Amino acid sequence: MGKLRFISILVAVLAVLLGQRIYSLRKRALATRELVKNHLPNCVLLENLDHGSEDITILGDGLAFISTGLKFPGVPSSDEPGKIFVLDLNDSRMKPVELRMPRNFDLETFNPHGISLYTDPSDDAVYLLVVNHPHRNSQIEVFRFVEEELSLVHLKTIKHKLLHSVNDIIAVGIDSFYATNDHYFENQFLKSYVEILLCQPWGNVVYYSPTEVKEVSHGYYFANGINMSPDKRNIYVADLLDHNVHVFERKEDNTLTRVKTVAVGSLVDNIEVDPETGDLWVGCHPNGWKALLLDPNDPAGSEVIRIQNIHSDKPQVTQVYEDDGHVLIGSSVATTYGGKLLIGTVFHKALVCDLK
């Protein structure tokens, strides 16, 4: 009888702990938030992007690079390998074109996530750095973009033990970058279930160069998007499950010093920065619980947040777009060019709208 009682108490205690963990996760996921519509004029779904557009970044001339086909645990995906598209935002047809990939690259396992562009100031050559998850691992692919052929030349693959669960990167050189690790564990079961339930601030930011690799920031519940100010003096990091964007100052030794934290009020994903105004454009998940459940009858919505004057005493956080999931599911990135707003998603479609 004593053993049975002990087992009963143990089961009851575990049930309470599990209930607390689920309650905490629901709270961080904004599970009770009601989704509404706050649409923009002249919105059009883009062709050829039916399996996500997880990250998007734009060259100064209006050429947008789009990663698509991400395969991530718990997220719907296609059997096809991932791809990189370009979209000329100066072309009224708004038709994404798939970039030709090199033959010496393993296309079958290509699983692109976050991306970043770097333009070499010495010759204006454009390099594309891509977070790749072949076989659910993490590595960085470095490509050179050949605009005349709309193709990518693969230069190298970067792997390191500190780059174990990379979500996004921001390039500061041809093969130098800051990267976010969204999980602590490498094991898929631990990172997909145990770590999510525990919901502890174990994510971090890593600086990588060919001569030095080091952790430069830690303490994130889910380190996600990362980007840099136009003057290259500050780094911005999104913490998905803490609903914040953190601002850091870059030091000469590439370490980061925290300056401030800006509350966004949504699950922040990727960050893009307007090169002229310095405004941050953030793709967000307004209800992360729906994004976890993936109920087709109650879809996860989409949200775009703009942060103006982020370095001032009173940054202005504004909702620019929101949808209840009937147009766009799971927005992960937003960026602007020429009066247009381009919104990408984890596994759904991509949308381009006129800004008001």
Secondary-structure element string: HEEEEEEEEEEEHEEEEEEEEHEEEEE
* Total beta strand runs: 24
Instruction: Provide a count of the helices.
Output: 3
Beta content comes to 35-45%
General form: globular
| Helix share bin | 10-25%
Q: Give a short account of the largest sheet.
A: 4 strands, antiparallel
Subunit organisation of the chains: single chain
> What order do the strands of the largest sheet run in, or round the barrel if closed?
1-24-23-22
Return the structural class: mainly beta
- Give Rg in angstroms: 20 Å
In terms of per-residue confidence, which ranges show pLDDT below 50 for 5 or more consecutive residues? none
Distance between the termini: 71 Å
If you average the pLDDT, what whole number results? 94
Describe this protein with a few key phrases.
single chain; 356 residues; mainly beta; four-stranded antiparallel β-sheet; 3 helices; 24 strands; 12% helix; globular
List the SSEs and their pairings.
Elements lengths: L1 H27 L15 E2 L9 E4 L4 E6 L14 E6 L8 E2 L13 E8 L6 E7 L6 E8 L4 E8 L7 E6 L5 E5 L6 H11 L4 E7 L2 E9 L2 E6 L5 E6 L4 E7 L5 E8 L3 E7 L6 E6 L2 H6 L8 E7 L7 E8 L7 E7 L2 E6 L5 E4 L2
Any overview of this molecule?
- 12% of the residues lie in helices and 42% in strands.
- It is mostly beta strands and 356 residues long.
- The strands form 6 sheets. Strands 1-24-23-22 form a 4-stranded antiparallel β-sheet, with no helix packed on it. Strands 2-3-4-5 form a 4-stranded antiparallel β-sheet, with no helix packed on it.
- The chain starts with a helix and ends with a strand.
- The model has no long low-confidence stretch (mean pLDDT 94).
